[in-house]
Amino acid sequence: MMNYKFFLLPIFGFSIVLSSCVSKKAMKSEKVRYVTLQTQYDKLQADLKNCNDLSDENARKKNELMAELDNLKKQNEFLKDNNSQALKQLENLSVISSSQAESIKKSLDNIGAKDAYIQNLQTAMARKDSLNMNLVMNLKGAIGNLDDKDINIKVDKGVVYIDISDKLLFKSGSYDITENAKTVLGKVAQVLKNQPDIEFMVEGHTDNVAYKGNAFLKDNWDLSVKRATAVVRVLQNQYGLDPSHMAAAGRSEYKPIADNTTAEGRAANRRTRIVILPQLDQFFKLLEHKD
Fold first, then answer.
1. What is the DSSP annotation of 223-262?
2. Residue ranges per domain, the chain?
3. Contact between residue 68 and residue 2 where contact means Cβ atoms under 8 Å apart
4. Between the N and C ends of the chain, which has fewer C-beta atoms within 10 Å?
5. How many other β-carbons are positioned within 10 Å of the β-carbon of residue 90?
6. How far apart are CA 217 and CA 235, in angstroms?
7. In what order do the strands lie in the sheet with 246-252?
8. Residue 58 near residue 34 (C-beta atoms within 8 A)
9. What is the rounded CA–CA span in Å between residue 242 and residue 132?
10. How many CB atoms lie within 10 A of CB 291?
11. What letter would DSSP give residue 69?
């Protein structure tokens, strides 16, 4: 991620200008540093706007960007607190003209506006986290007292996950959903139905035991995909969830959450995961430039 130590250099340069009479050449140097600060700031916003990949890696990058935005906010506050005094002393020293001072003041005011913009983003992120926690509580309330080994609901890096063990959903080596499993899926569907804007992905996962295959399924890839699509069909056909808000995917054996060398680990890895997709399109709309 971007190193923000360079933010301190222009501020140090301003301190030197304020304490002694400097040449126009030195002022030009400070102006170049200021432009560098603005360029790096704009690049940071562009980097965040392009962060639209919904993978786990991108979720981590988004959190890092928010931390960097917070750090930038602190730098902006320092600039705002000192810009008036800096401009006054620079004008008194005749290092820059009044028109140049006004130009710099407008630039610093613009940074102040962007600081308020960052605060709005942080407020939006806090609201999103609150909505996620509310969704988790509603899901746990609807599911009731099922064993956590069979169904687990959690929030990780701002994303809500619902893990359901395959022993609860399917018979061994099958992708036909059991009647008892449909009851559980119905409870999950009711909560999701009350949030019409939510989009989610159903992921099938297996252990690393090779699937023997048959006329329809060749390996664990096929099995994981068929299990995911079986769950999606039940949610759509029996419980009326909007198919345009759903996606099905197979992960095969390649995203384990436990050690496949033990029976307990393999059982944990055989699961179906419902991932509540973050609404990044709404988040990135907040990042669009506003005059």
1. HHHHHHHHHHHHHHHTT---GGGEEEEEEETSS-SS-TTS
2. 5-128, 144-282
3. yes
4. C
5. 21
6. 23
7. 151-156, 159-165, 271-277, 199-205, 246-252
8. no
9. 20
10. 3
11. H
- The two three-digit tokens of residue 46, written as one number: 């562009």
Class of domain 144-282 (CATH, top level): alpha beta
28-42 pLDDT, tens digit per residue, is: 677 777 777 778 777
Side-chain-side CA neighbours of 19 within 13 Å: the count stands at 6
Residue 129 pLDDT grade (very low, low, confident, very high; cuts 50, 70, 90): low
- Is residue 79 a contact partner of residue 111, using CB atoms and an 8 Å limit? yes
Tokens 């699961």 sit on residue: 271
Cβ atoms of residues 50 and 280 within 8 Å: no
| 133 vs 69: CA distance, rounded Å | 23
- DSSP 3-state helix, strand, coil percentages of the chain (rounded to 5)? 60, 10, 25
Measured in whole angstroms, how far is the alpha carbon of residue 24 from the centre of its chain? 46
* Paired sense of beta strands 246-252 and 199-205, if any: parallel
Helix (H) or strand (E) holding 222: helix 220-237
Query: Residue 276: is it exposed, middle or buried by C-beta count within 10 angstroms (0-12/13-18/19+)?
Result: buried
Question: What is the number of residues in the chain?
Answer: 291
Taking residues 43-69, report their average pLDDT.
67
Note the pTM of the prediction, 2 decimals: 0.54
Question: Distance between CA atoms of 139 and 19, rounded to whole angstroms?
Answer: 62
- Report how far residue 20's alpha carbon sits from residue 90's, in angstroms, rounded to the nearest whole number: 10
Contact between 122 and 115 under an 8 Å Cβ cutoff? The reply is no
CA 4 to chain centre: 21
Predicted confidence (pLDDT) per residue in 59-93, tens digit: 676 777 778 878 877 777 777 666 666 666 655 55
Dihedral of CA atoms 46, 47, 50, 56 in degrees, nearest 10, equals -160
Amino acid at 94: S
Going by C-alpha positions, the residue among 152, 125, 138 that lies closest to residue 59 is: 125
